[in-house]
Amino acid sequence: MILDGKAVSEKRLEILKERIEESGLYPRLATVIVGADPASQMYVRMKHRACERVGIGSIGIELPEDASTERVLEAVNRLNNDPDINGILIQLPLPPQVDTTRVIEAVAPDKDVDGFHPCSLGRLLAGNPVFAPCTPQGIMTILEEYKIPIRGKRAVVVGRSIDVGRPMAALLLNADATVTICHSKTENLAEEMRRADILVSAVGKARFVGPEMVKEGATVIDVGINYDEQGKLCGDVDFDAVKDRAGAITPVPGGVGPMTIATLMENTFRAAKLRTCNGTAR
Ligand code: NDP
């Protein structure tokens, strides 16, 4: 079975659009981009387009490539204090002179729609998330939509980054999977991976996962966005070699990617609703 993230994201965006309309709220997202990296600019444009589609207002803050940490912090603080802004998204990666940790930690936790603030990650780990990072939360939505059983299943997450691997493991654990996290120092990696009923690869290496790493019938989630030697977009998983062995698999493109943006929209609406609950809505 091909897990069609594009279709799931379309469906979720339509539902979200209706919910936002019914709510009478006008959520607003601010994006912050530093420099002119074409890929980052493209992602930010896609996010603004998604906002427009579902009825979320959006503003974009663009800072020059050589902006200092202080300058970025100043922009974040202004957005923190702006009552019209519900969600703040810092487009990563930031240029090397900017202290990414300080910037992420400066975002007000109630506007942390990307879910990278230690407060958000701590709540996620405590089993009580408010904003989970969009990519792993989007993967949970795919699993849910396709009714892939999670409780009691053995999940293996390859990669331990803050944006994908770690929160993915926490979300699967919260959903009662038995979770293993693998990384570049893991011994007998293929053996660990072969034990997985649900295998999530967030490594960032083209066609890294071959059939010998996949248990027959496993659900394979490919987070990777890579380019092969021919410059062709591909995931971490050798799709053609693995698809007949897997029970279900996400393609690249059209799998995890579209879910990331849909989840960002959902998190932004959630931030707007939470603000209303706290009695601070205009
Ligand atoms: P990072 O580079 O932050 O993390 C990669 C992880 O893979 C690290 O934990 C690293 O281990 C591990 N790793 C590297 N090599 C190996 C190896 N040989 N064996 C086992 N583990 C290994 O990347 P991200 O988590 O941010 O992203 C991963 C991929 O997902 C990238 O391709 C990225 O573009 C994509 N991505 C896609 C998104 C989407 O929306 N579809 C969103 C975010 C990311 P160690 O910690 O030991 O170094």
Structure description:
This protein has 282 residues and is of the alpha/beta class. It has two domains: 25-108, 3-Layer(aba) Sandwich (Rossmann fold), CATH 3.40.50.10860; 134-256, 3-Layer(aba) Sandwich (Rossmann fold). It is 41% helix and 15% strand. A five-stranded parallel β-sheet has the order 5-4-6-7-10. It has a three-stranded parallel β-sheet with strand order 2-1-3, sandwiched between helices. Strands 8-9 form a two-stranded antiparallel ribbon. β8 (226-227) and β9 (233-234) form a beta hairpin. The longest helix has 22 residues, at 256-277. It is globular, with a radius of gyration of 19 Å. The model has no long low-confidence stretch (mean pLDDT 97). The chain binds NADPH dihydro-nicotinamide-adenine-dinucleotide phosphate.
What tags apply to this protein structure?
Rossmann fold, 282 residues, binds NADPH dihydro-nicotinamide-adenine-dinucleotide phosphate, three-stranded parallel sheet, 10 helices, single chain, THF_DH/CycHdrlase, alpha/beta, five-stranded parallel sheet, 15% strand, NADP, hydrolase, methylenetetrahydrofolate dehydrogenase (NADP+) activity
